[in-house]
Amino acid sequence: MDNWDDHGVAKGSPAARNEPVRHHRAVLHYSRERYRLLATESAERRIRWAVAYLASSIGSSEGNATVVTRRSVQRDIADLAETTIYTVNRVLNDYERRGILTKKRGRIVLSGALQMKQGATRLPPQSPPLPMGKLPAHRTPIQ
What we know:
alpha+beta; Arc Repressor Mutant, subunit A; four-stranded antiparallel sheet; 45% helix; 11% strand
């Protein structure tokens, strides 16, 4: 088994020696943030985080907009946010109605007004919640 020092890392510059520490710190920060989001936040906030994460990691700038292009971008958002593709579609449709983004097949274009930074979870204020309607007679709310 290789020892980490066999590759000359300890003999390199201090910056080279600290790079693995910085990498692990970034991975731990990402893991902690994602765990917190999955454990405590609503599906909409998790979807905001997933959109922001994809925009910062694979998005490209086109003028004053950020474009995320993937074959199955909504599936990727659903997987990152630990929710269903139907919930992602509903939330993205709401964002599109509010002018925050535009959806096209395999492509999401975030408007220039929305500044996405890595780890950003804040979007413009959300629209009022959709009415849930009355429960069917055979169902009662959990108390």
